[in-house]
Amino acid sequence: MKHEPLSSVSGGRKIEPLAYSMEEAAAMLGISRGKLYRILNVGEIGGKKLGRRTIILHSDLVKFLDNLPNCDEESNFY
């Protein structure tokens, strides 16, 4: 039996996930799972427990990205 991803097509409509596993959220951010756990532990992103699993809500992921500093000419971003 093949597992279908959560963001699949159902009845002609795409279903967007409401939450992501730590692995999925880390991959979406382009960081390691360990780095995501460190960000979670210092409170920079919200997480929820689903049984023994830790999940990141889509809204918390968006909020985290919105709160990141902007790049501007005076910043030391490369």
What is the general shape?
Answer: globular
Main β-sheet: number of strands, strand sense, barrel status? Answer: 3 strands, antiparallel
User: What percent strand?
Assistant: 15-25%
Proportion of residues in helical segments: 25-40%
Tell me the total number of β-strands. Answer: 5
Kindly report the spatial arrangement of strands forming the biggest sheet. 3-5-4
What is the averaged pLDDT score? 87
Task: Write the CATH fold name of the domain at 14-65.
Answer: Arc Repressor Mutant, subunit A
Sheet/helix structural class: alpha+beta
The topology string of helices and strands comes to EEEHHEEH
Per CATH, which architecture of the domain at 14-65? Orthogonal Bundle
Assembly annotation: single chain
Low-pLDDT stretches are none
Tell me the name of the CATH class of the domain at 14-65.
Answer: Mainly Alpha
Q: How far is the first residue's CA from the last residue's CA?
A: 45 Å
Write the layout of secondary structure elements.
Blueprint: E1 9-10, E2 13-14, E3 19-21, H1 22-29, H2 33-41, E4 48-50, E5 53-57, H3 58-66
Antiparallel strand pairs: 1-2, 3-5, 4-5
Helix pairs in contact: 1-2
